[in-house]
What does this fold into?
Amino acid sequence: MSPPLLEFRQVGFRYPNTTTPVLQDCSFTLEAGQKIALLGLNGSGKSTLFYLAAALYRRDRGEIYWQGQRLIYQPDKLRQWRQRIGLAFQDPEQQLVAATVAEDISYGLCNLDLPPAEIEARLYQTLQDFDLLHLADRPLHHLSLGQKRRVALAGVMALAPTLLLLDEPTTYLDYQQRQQLVQTLENIHRRGTTIVIATHDLDFAYGWADWIMVLVNGQVTVSDRASHVFEQWPTLAPELGTPTLLRLWQQLPPSWRRNQTLPRTATALAQIWQKGLQVPPTLD
Amino acid sequence: MHHHLDLYAYTNRLRSLDPRQKVLFSLGTLGFAFFAHPLVQGLLWLWLVLWILGYARIPWRVYGLLVGTVMAFWLLSLPALVVQIVPNRGLELSASAPLAQLSFGGWSLAVSLESLKQAFITGLRTTVCSTALLFLVLTTPFPSLLALAARWGMPNFVLDVLMLMYRYLFTLLETALTLQLAQRARGGYQRRSRWLFSVSLLAAQLFRRSLRRYHQTNLALLSRGFQGQFRVFRLQSYAYSQRYSLEMVVGGSALLLLNRIVA
It folds into this structure.
């Protein structure tokens, strides 16, 4: 059996000059090829966990492993580590560092010391993949938030990471931008990248993820298949609320729900509803 | 205004013209304006205006506002340029008689034809020089200028600083405007006493946010493999134009010749 893609073993972390640790004995494993939602309330340590996973912060205690290899905090090892794990920040404004779209996407590629021809080829490919060719020489401060988020994601994906960490990617996005993001994530996942999204948007996580992790007080308290987690949802993490579709599903008569799998989309729920309406509910 | 100014650099009709041509033209006309005869300076100004309003299609209001701002400084310094404070005795000894004079005690405030001419020449030169620089600012995006500076051997650390400044200047302005709007929405700046308090709060917030942004930028650079030097790949989307080069050379030569004749 191959080792997990990423593993945290009893990791602890505390910010300097603070008394309370953000992460405490935090342990979990991530398997390759999954779509993972990391759920937790604001301040539960989701972003810090990402910074530790991307080796931007140094853990105080415990160990972090990549495919069985321990994270060693040496410059060349860190460079390799950060190339494997791409991180998209919550606020794209904080992530975009160059002047124009093309320059920003090329920034990470130039840091890999690739030949100019390869940088140019990968830059064009990324611009094309993220539908940014028409914005290539546009300055970043002329872009909308949705476009900035796309550029930030393109800049990370240009490095072809194996694991992509996204911190609250749906914040401030309108419906259309959200749909675009979901489509982009599907494309990225289809190419073999494992994706972890930190979010407190339960509806998004419910429809998108196939694996759920819940972070409470600096510890991963739940890590399981999404279908399994949501079947027992209200008891597992009541403080996070309940996804709208799941709440609707729970309101259906038990006879309608019997022998049905948990509907993950509105369409699936509607089909169960229609089917149920054809058969009058029985008293259970 | 800062957004508009930057926007024209990306959307004008000379956007795709080789920045080398634009830089050489701008710096050439700027240098020429320093020593040219006022008549030639006037013609040079008209020529530059043709490039800005005619060729680049920058709206005249934008150009007018920018050059007007520069001229406002000239107007503010006009009294110092035109009015002379001289002792009465010195005035009697001077070769040209003043056009207007106001005496009190042993001193006079005087306006002479010579000082008016000097103020006019200064104003004209200011207009032409600022127009030469505005031509560059309004037609060439800053990153293109940085790319050119890199090709011409400007040290990398200077380019890195300039690029980060350019990137974060707009972010800082946007943050400041948003904060100010939030303050106004809650009654800030309404009274004089609150005005000062609101400004101090704004400055403190901007400082705090700048520090936070600095930290986040560090993380962002590290996460994308920063190795001590800010390197990016620059797409070249401009073209050298023979027609514009010809006009620059012919027009410049004609003005130089005229300057020799009239000077």
